[in-house]
Every structure is written in C-alpha cells, then in structure tokens.
Design a protein that fits this description.
Arp2/3 complex 21 kDa subunit ARPC3; 6 helices; globular; cell membrane
Length: about 220
C-alpha cells in the first residue's frame, strides 16, 4: 500500500499527537478507578489504552517507523505534565479543586511517571515489532504480534512502577492481579476488536488516499 502524500501526512501527524495525549490522560484518570470483572480486579483504564496501539500501528503502516517515533517523542513530556495535572484534580474519580495543584502529590506523580515510562517502552517495542512484520502477506500478524508484546511490556512496567509498595493499600496488595487481568482485557479487546478494526481502517484509507491525492493535485 502506498504511504500518505505530504499534503495528508502532516496534518495526520498532528492529529495523532493530539489523539495519543487524549488517550494517555484519559487512561491515567481511569486507571485510578478499580472495577471487578467476573470476580477479578482490574481498572477502567484497560478499555481505553488499546486505542493507542491501534493508532501507532496505522502510523507505522502509513507513514513509516520514523514518523511513529516522532509522535512518541513529541507526546511523552506534555502527556507527563498533563497526566499529573488531571490525575491530581480528579484523584479517585472526584474533582479535588484547583487548590490540589498547590501541593505535590507523590502518589499521582508515581502514576504519571509510570505512565510516561511504560508508554515510551511499550510504544517503541510495538513500533519495532510491527515494522519487522509489516510486509508479511498475512496483514493481521503485524498488529496482533505488536499489540501482544507492546501491551505486555506497557502493562507490567506501568503497574510495577506505579503501585509496587504504593501508599494505596488496595493497589499495593492487588497490583499483580490487576495488571494480569488488565493485560488479558487489553489483549482480548485488541485482538477481537482493534485488529479487525485496523484492517477495516487500512482498507478505507487505501481507497480514500488516491482520491484525496488526486483532488490535491488539481488545486
């Protein structure tokens, strides 16, 4: 499949950066909200974060490995700051007021730092695996393998950094269980929903790009 022309990929790159930041901030908030699924403890963040891997895989496919890494480089520091701010303001799911920003919150800072490190490690692995497998005839192997490995590293890096010996007794006790269930949910959501969605979006983009490029050339 041809890569996107410059008139399309530049605004696409900006949109991807904004999308990554949105998902990271939302996931950092949702990971503070535990839930029980079939008797297993997890968090609502398990349902939001797989969107990033879908976006990254499409970026590598359409723009290449270099632009995908540019997205990560431009996102990680702003997302770290924004994640801390949002998590402090809405700790445990309720608005704490602007006064909460005046005092440094170590618990939330650990979550933001864990998210930062896990995001960078998981996304770089996802990009590397996807790029190695992207030319295989079976289109689904690259997104499936990169999602499996990238989510594994991301999930356990995040929970170990954020909640090992945490000041939150519930998360300190259950983080391994929560991380395992979180990974299982991410994997199920990604393989059952996002890999097929990746294929559909890729086909739609492949049909749309030639038309968009033709229209741009006439302007």
């Amino acid at each position: 499949m041809p890569t996107l022309p410059a008139t399309i990929w530049r605004p696409a790159l900006a949109g991807l950066i904004a999308f990554h930041m949105l998902i990271i901030i939302a996931s950092n908030y949702l990971v503070q909200l535990p839930m029980s699924l079939f008797g297993w403890q997890t968090t609502w963040g398990a349902f939001s974060f797989p969107f990033i891997f879908l976006a990254t895989d499409l970026t590598v496919r359409l723009l290449g490995k270099g632009p995908a890494r540019q997205v990560i480089a431009r996102v990680m520091l702003p997302a770290l700051i924004a994640s801390y701010g949002v998590s402090v303001l809405f700790q445990s799911g309720s608005f704490a007021g602007l006064a909460a920003l005046q005092e440094f919150n170590l618990f939330v800072a650990r979550i933001a730092l864990a998210s930062f490190l896990a995001y960078v490690l998981g996304q770089l692995l996802d990009i590397q695996v996807f790029d190695r497998l992207r030319n295989l005839r079976q289109w689904w192997l690259a997104p499936a393998a990169s999602t499996l490995l990238g989510n594994l590293l991301d999930t356990f890096a995040f929970f170990s950094i954020a909640f090992w010996h945490s000041s939150d007794p519930f998360m300190a006790e259950h983080w391994i269980e929560i991380a395992s269930v979180d990974y299982a949910i991410k994997l199920a959501v990604s393989l059952l929903l996002f890999v097929p969605l990746y294929g559909m979006l890729l086909s739609a983009i492949a049909r749309a790009v030639p038309r968009r490029a033709a229209l741009s050339s006439r302007v």
